[in-house]
Structure formats: C-alpha cells, structure tokens
Design brief:
173 residues; alpha/beta; Rossmann fold; 6 strands; 31% strand
Amino acid sequence: MTRPTRFIGPALGALALAACASTNTVQVWRDPNYVPVPLHRIMVVGMIDDAEVRVTFENAIAQALVSRGFEVATSSATFPPGQFSEAGLVAYVKAQHADLVLFLHLTSFSAATADQPGVATSQSEAFAGKAYPGPTIWNGASTTRNFFTFQEAATPLATSIVTALAKADILVR
C-alpha cells in the first residue's frame, strides 16, 4: 500500500510546475556602441492602458531591480492617474538624475479564463536615462504563458527582463 503513495508527491510537484507561468525571451538586441556605465537610479514605465495591470507589471520589474541593489521609480507611483506625459517623464528623469529608463509594452495580452491560461507578449526597451529621449540601448521581446493572474505573469516577465539586461551589461553597479 505504501508503494503507490511514493509517486503522489512527485506527481503533484510536476503538476504544479506545469501550471506555473513561464517566460521565454524570443529576441534581445543591444546597441553595440553602448559603453556600460554604473547605474544607480532606474525609471520603469509600463506602456499599458489598464492601470491595474500597469501597476502590477511595473512593481514586479521594480522589485526585481531593487533586489539587485538599484534605486527604482515607477511611472504609476510617480505620476498621478491621467497625469503621465512624455514631457513630464523627461523632466522627472533629468530632475532625479535617472541613469536608465526602461519601457514595457504589452504587445498582446489574452487574459486567463476558467479553462484557458493567459498569454502575454511584450516588448521592452531601455534608454540611457540622462540622455532620454535618445537612442535605444537595449530591446527585448518575450512571451509569457500559463498564468491565471496578472501577478503570475508579471513576476517571470520581470525576472526575464532583468536577467537579459544584466547579461547584456546594461545593469552595471
């Protein structure tokens, strides 16, 4: 009788892993002329219409950056609802001496239903902050699958973006 129960734990573990959201980075580009410089302050801007989704994704990216020792501001925490503008962003970046501006665009997003997990594709862009607006120094695209809440999608996406930025020598301390 104890023999069949040995397999329940591993089977449940495999089922849990299969249900977790996962992100695949499908494209990364880095400006070959960019010279890495130490970063301290980073501004995260989610170009997402839905305010709740924007806050969730910006906060996930901010947390991933904070865990690596960076100071981070998000557009949703910096600008009141309906007050975000590019001119305001430029002024904020200059006043706060932000070193990097990171944009996240959700290019497609299918919300989860009771029987179908969600899928999101995203495009991320990084700009040298003090030179913003200026040339893009990094660009990445990814797809996140198998999530049922925004947070389940945001956390692996944030990890993927921050890892790719670090591998590209953009996130330098």
